[in-house]
Amino acid sequence: MEHQHQLSDENFDDVAAYEQVQRLFMAAVELPVESQFSWVESLTDIHPLIVKQVLAALKADAACGANSEESDGQAPALAETVHGNQGKTQKSRSRVFPPIPNYEIIEEIDRGGMGVVYRARQHRPDRMVAIKMMKMGAFSSETDVERFLNEANAASSLDHAAVVPIYEVGEFLGEPFIVMKFIDGETFSRVLKRGEISTTEAIQKLCVVSQAIADAHEHGIIHRDLKPSNILIDRNSGKPWVTDFGLAKNLDTDASLTSAGDIMGTPGYMAPEQAFGQSKTASPSADVYGLGAILYVILTGRPPIQSVDGDIAKTIELIREHDVVAPRELSRAVSHELNTVCIKALETDPALRYSHAGEFGDDLQRCLDGEAISARSRGLFRKIHRWTRHRPGLAVTLVTVGVFYVYHLIVDSAGLLPNDDFFKTTVSIVVLLTVFNAWFWQHWLRRTQGAAWTLYAWTTGEVALLTCLLLAGDGASSGLIPAYFVLVAASGLRCRPMLIGYVTTLSVVGYVSLWAYSARATQETVTPLVGIPTLLALCLVGLIQYIALRKSSVSLESQVSTRLDRVHSKSQ
User: Fold this and answer.
1) Segment 31-84, tens digit of pLDDT
2) Which helix (H) or strand (E) holds 70?
3) Where are the beta strands (DSSP E) in 360-467?
4) Gap between the Cα atoms of 52 and 122, Å rounded
5) Catalytic residue among 215, 225, 244, 287
6) Which domains, from first to last, does the chain contain?
7) 61 catalytic, yes or no?
8) Rounded to two decimals, what is the model's pTM?
9) How far apart are CA 10 and CA 24, in angstroms?
10) Which DSSP state fits 107?
């Protein structure tokens, strides 16, 4: 870093000071986090006011990551929110603000991943405004600048009462800035979190937002980052405002800012096609999904897809592979109509959602008015498909048990089974216990939010029940021995490599126990030429399942990480 000239109080110049703060801040953020503050404090030849401002900027920058998660309970958004926040930073001459002509900056009110937002007074005309500038200032890349100005281009082309209007787009010292209406309010997410608004009132505000997004769609604009923190609620009127069009896409122009494979949006609120990296071909249905996600938060208090311990890659995997749990399954207070509207908006297939935001808003209004909605509940096949996706373990168990029990009844009715009432009774009891075991642990799996111990207890019960059934029959020579292989294969559906090894080990122990029991108790032992290949086959099936699962997981994480790195590199 080149030596910075010392400034005296007499020749202190706001423009020069601002440029120097920018340079020092950019130099500091290139250093390891633990040494940034100490490096700035060591600059004894720099004016104290400059040092103080750089330290303040570093503190705000360090805090913005944690604060960005506060609103939505998700990883930091890919676009920041503009909103008024009184009392966050008081007006003080200890701060060096950009001396933009015709504006007096009063305070910094927000800081996000890309930009900084100030509350300012415009002299001509005399009014309060919000000014948004790029955090990296003149050091931002050309693509970053284009993305930043994309917000102004998208919002300025709209003229809806619920879209924050753009007053001016200008440039100061080579840095672009956007002047917009100042909204004295707070984000919808904070309003919902405090619980000071009824469900009906929240839905009424979402209806207004839906119509604003519908108007945007009519003008060829897709927002692509709808979430509660991008909706502002005016403190005085309670009116909702849609903001942050930083990721917007214009359908009428070439989307040169989006490349194939880019993941655009906020994990937990982005549509599945966005999570698949298909943002370049995103349609208005992506915004319908975002509106449905906001409705989901209103009805349940949480996003439709929750982040996995802050792991963005795994969160995106959930968005890709899993339907959301219906709001009514989480809260019976949700009406059937609202549940149907929400689920239709959150369909994985864009073609099954509402065709545009206006239809979604109209159905919401019908729910409030007590009228019949246009959306219809899913057909029987769709309901079964959805049910099995949310309960794969229980579904596989029911199908497997059903197939084997039907086979048992057919063989018994054909007279191919010995007339052994004890064995037949045992089969019926084991079938019932297996179904109960699956239902019980599926229930606990949901209550414990997927705790690993429930899966291990579940599979332990399945292997134990199968072994008991085989002991009551022909032991190691039973025709149901292949059921062990089914259990090993089914364990791969739980997506836990270690669980596959556990089930494989239990199955081997169970088969060896049957082999030993048959040799001692029934004298009908299985020859080593049959038993050993069976054991080897069990081990190999388990090993193949383990390797396949590990390989697919690594491949998926690699693809997602690559795309996320591409997004992050464009926003840094």
Assistant:
1) 877 788 888 888 877 878 788 878 877 776 666 544 444 445 433 332 333 344
2) helix 48-72
3) none
4) 26
5) 225
6) 14-181 (3.30.200.20), 186-384 (1.10.510.10), 391-558 (no CATH)
7) no
8) 0.63
9) 21
10) E
